[in-house]
């Protein structure tokens, strides 16, 4: 998981989307208060997620936002989440700091110089996923140790996946002309989400500064017969849902847009190889965090209700997620048991840890009892295949080329691909059932000699229920 890491409201809520918010919101029966000062119309604009009661009429949303120095960018009435733009520094205070949050404003205006330094360090560490080697070998299949590990070639001989299944790649965009990806990419199902509102212009969902999404896509459904490269499920379709901006950030409104797009367009699976910025952990009891946490939670829950299985990377910080650090590594916020890395920390999301060539946990991979569902190849520079110069995972990169990257970002799409195979074999199966089969069909991986690993082979802190198994998925 790169930095592509890139709510319960404190006094609120039951889990359901129709729950009544305890935080005050404007309704037809309530007058919308006017602003107490003139709005700033000249400063830098920022986008915010803003919480409402689900099904609040859009006219009421627009009226309140305008009265409090904002304007609507997007509104998702099914979950009561608006995306608003405002130039006014007091916008969140006017809306209520448990109802409104801007990740982009927090990046631009860090609380302290130390907070800015922490975020810069986190960005530097994210470079762990850079392309370390562009591979020019004529037969690329010799480098695909990851596919052999999960028995993908044997599975493909039986079933390459159904073209009726769509996997949404929520990431930095998919290169549409890449020879391994053009066959699978569905432009009609693709959208850019960085403003918080879906934009179907190809320029909005194509990659610009990062080939991360292109690499992820190749693992899921790539196929280049001439070069011998094949992904887990080359028969399925993919949608490019761009949630990573050109600075490498994934803000809450982009993720909300991505999950809602997946729900509205009937995707069976999404892959989420990132965490939501600018924090690593979001805490439902904190001002600002509360709104971001709940907005994303509602979008994820809605997508699941609409039949989407969401798969996410566990993260590359080497944390025991069952015993998280006391302070968010990206900022100075305290972390407690209510806090979570989003989206992987939300109910129903399949969390994937990483293993290297030797089949043991990658040195960087997060882990944790009850936190990891399955594991998959993510690579490890210390676990080199015989004769290889890279222990990372080979897949598609910019310019129609192929290269290696390491990370739980690379592990998650293996699991997403296997989930897509399961969904294709069993049309109409609920995401909960697909998730259960993904876990049940995984190859059990015992802890071995790893002292930090706890639990039996059937479910432990390093590997969850085991290594995803593509062959078992199609049998």
From TrEMBL:
InterPro entries hit by this protein: Peptidase_S8/S53_dom, Peptidase_S8/S53_dom_sf, Peptidase_S8_Asp-AS, Peptidase_S8_His-AS, Peptidase_S8_Ser-AS, Peptidase_S8_subtilisin-like, Peptidase_S8_subtilisin-rel
One protein family per Pfam: Peptidase_S8
Domain Peptidase S8/S53: 164-466
Top-level taxon of origin: Bacteria
Keywords recorded for this protein, A-Z: Hydrolase, Protease, Serine protease, Signal
GO molecular function: serine-type endopeptidase activity
N-terminal signal peptide: 1-28
PROSITE patterns: SUBTILASE, SUBTILASE_ASP, SUBTILASE_HIS, SUBTILASE_SER
BP GO annotations: proteolysis
Family assignment from sequence similarity: Belongs to the peptidase S8 family.
The name this protein goes by in its record: Subtilisin-like serine protease
Organism: Saccharomonospora xinjiangensis XJ-54
């Amino acid at each position: 998981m790169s930095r592509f890491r890139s709510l319960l409201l404190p006094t609120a809520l039951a889990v359901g989307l129709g729950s009544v918010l305890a935080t005050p919101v404007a309704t037809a029966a309530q007058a919308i208060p006017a602003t107490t000062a003139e709005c700033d119309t000249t400063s830098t604009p920022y986008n915010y997620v803003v919480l409402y009661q689900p099904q609040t009429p859009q006219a009421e949303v627009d009226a309140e936002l305008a009265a409090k120095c904002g304007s609507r960018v997007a509104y998702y009435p099914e979950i009561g989440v608006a995306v608003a733009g405002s130039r006014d520094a007091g916008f969140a205070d006017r809306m209520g700091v448990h109802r409104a949050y801007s990740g982009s404003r927090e990046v631009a205006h860090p609380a302290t110089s130390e907070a800015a330094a922490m975020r810069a360090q986190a960005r530097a560490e994210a470079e762990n996923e850079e392309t370390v080697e562009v591979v020019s070998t004529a037969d690329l299949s010799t480098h695909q140790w990851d596919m052999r590990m999960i028995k993908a070639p044997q599975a493909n001989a039986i079933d390459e996946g159904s073209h009726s299944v769509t996997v949404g790649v929520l990431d930095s965009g998919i290169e549409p002309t890449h020879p391994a990806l053009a066959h699978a990419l569905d432009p009609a199902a693709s959208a850019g989400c960085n403003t918080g509102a879906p934009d179907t212009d190809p320029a909005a969902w194509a990659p610009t500064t990062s080939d991360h999404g292109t690499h992820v896509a190749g693992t899921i459904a790539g196929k280049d017969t001439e070069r011998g490269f094949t992904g887990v499920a080359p028969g399925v379709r993919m949608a490019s849902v761009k949630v990573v901006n050109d600075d490498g950030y994934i803000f809450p409104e982009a993720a909300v847009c991505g999950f809602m797009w997946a729900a509205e367009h009937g995707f069976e699976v999404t892959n989420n190889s990132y965490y939501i910025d600018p924090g690593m952990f979001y805490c439902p009891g904190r001002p600002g965090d509360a709104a971001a946490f709940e907005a994303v939670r509602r979008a994820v829950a809605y997508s699941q209700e609409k039949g989407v299985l969401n798969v996410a990377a566990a993260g590359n910080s080497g944390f025991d997620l069952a015993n998280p650090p006391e302070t968010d590594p990206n900022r100075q916020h305290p972390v407690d048991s209510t806090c979570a890395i989003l989206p992987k920390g939300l109910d129903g999301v399949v969390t994937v840890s990483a293993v290297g060539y030797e089949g043991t946990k990658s040195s960087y991979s997060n882990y944790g009892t009850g936190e990891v569902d399955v594991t998959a190849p993510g690579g490890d520079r210390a676990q080199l295949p015989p004769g290889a110069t890279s222990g990372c995972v080979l897949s598609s990169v910019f310019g129609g080329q192929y290269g290696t990257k390491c990370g739980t970002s690379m592990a998650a799409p293996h699991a997403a691909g296997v989930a897509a195979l399961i969904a294709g074999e069993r049309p109409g199966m609920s995401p909960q059932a697909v998730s259960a089969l993904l876990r049940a069909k995984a190859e059990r991986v015992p802890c071995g000699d790893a002292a930090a690993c706890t639990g039996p082979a059937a479910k432990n802190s390093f590997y969850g229920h085991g290594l995803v198994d593509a062959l078992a998925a199609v049998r």
